Amino acid sequence: MPSWTIAFASPRVESEILALPAGHVARFVRYAERMETWGPDLGMPHTRAMGGGLFELRVQAVEGIARLFFCTATDRRIVFVHAFVKKTGKTPPGALAIARRRMMQVIDG
Question: pTM of the predicted model, to two decimals?
Answer without folding.
Answer: 0.92
